[in-house]
Predict the structure of Putative Transcriptional regulator.
Amino acid sequence: MPDEFIPRPRRSVPQIPEPPRTPPTHRSQLARRVAIVAGLVVLLAISTVLGFSIFKHETPLQILGDALIPSPQQVFGRSQLRVLVVGLDYDYTDNDQPFSAQSRSDVIWAVNLDLVNKRIFELSVPRDMVATMPDGSEAKINQAQADGGVKEAEQVISHWLGIPGFDRYVILRINATRELIDDIGGVTVDVENSDPKDKSPINYDDNWGHLHIHLKTGVQHLDGAQAVGYMRYRHDWCGDPCRIRRQQEVLHALAAKLERNKLNTILHAGQLVRTMLANVQTNFSKSELLSLAHYYVGIKPSQIIAHQVPYVANVYLPGYGDSIVPDKNARRRLAESMLIAPPSPAPTADPGALAAIAPGSLRVDVENGSGIDGAAADLARILKAEGYRIGKVGNSTSYHDNSVVRAHSATTFAGEKVASGLPTAMRNALVVEAPAAGATSDVTVVIGRDDGLAVHALPSPSPGASATP
């Protein structure tokens, strides 16, 4: 047998004696118990947060944020906050470098943050509106920012709107919106011309202004640069009012994106705040911005109420060119209902309460705020077929981006009842309690631009159709 197969004797390994075991001391036993209890507490806390998040339909990070981040009411000590938002119009040096010193306002938003009902009211002021400057002269309202900075802009715009003033201001640089949209992965927008029936693409190049827009019409995903270009476009027959409409459309798309992906929003909250601080001049503190960012996570587009001050005439203003004159009555109503004393949101109605209200017991006025010819008449026919009594049918005094149902009736849930009878495309219409002395109707439905085309495209109800009371 070869040597390698011969068994070899095992070598003995010297045994090392084990050290004597020291009996556990009282301190080590206590430390072990504390560690075990701490671990159980951590597991229990995680389980509680996860379970509560499922119950509340919120992410665990939201639950933790609720516990760690103070609410805006605690931070500001008030129920609403008026904010002036100004977007600056950039100029460029001979070396093609942007600068905003003494620039006019390109965007003017008077914003009211409802810190009780989680709503945002945004009233846009067209930059070409005629306003009175502190020295008594007349100029375009955006001149105030160029003359005296944000302090004069706050003074002129608050006086022009007839409100006490602003609590905070935000001055946006052009990069702010672009980078914010890029931070959340872009937005989905239904790109339209000023005339929604015009389906031709939007093509515009302004080399000096660094504005290049090449977009197809229709629903599409836009990155930050594309979205900002769409928001800035004003070179058509509609001009500044339609540009404001596009700005509000992107604002709603941004809110919809944040609402749909709450976890992503929370995870990127720090980056969103950093983006804002890098491109924004404001008197908000970082802690105030963080509180607001956490509070408004998940806000629904229907909770953002956006309008613009309408105008009644075009005028030529020496030194400033073509300008527009505001509708003073509409301006006063909008400022009161959005910036001073917004109506309380309607209470939630249960199906039984709605079923108990007969459609024939309610008289409904229909106003067309969409700019789509015939939309009010189309909706009036639909509501009449549902059994409602139709009152006045006509145009609204101003354009509305979103549909609104205003309840004037003493009948509880009258607004919700009418809203439940609206076409599916309008089911997200905001319902507000709007008591009006001398009102001849129970409810007024204002068709917004977002719903005008959808209503107009619906087939007319059959002549014999009617709702059972």
Observations:
- The chain has two domains: 68-340, 351-457.
- Confidence is low (pLDDT under 50) at residues 1-13, 39-65, 462-469.
- Residues 100 and 407 are 45 Å apart (CA to CA).
- The longest strand covers residues 105-114.
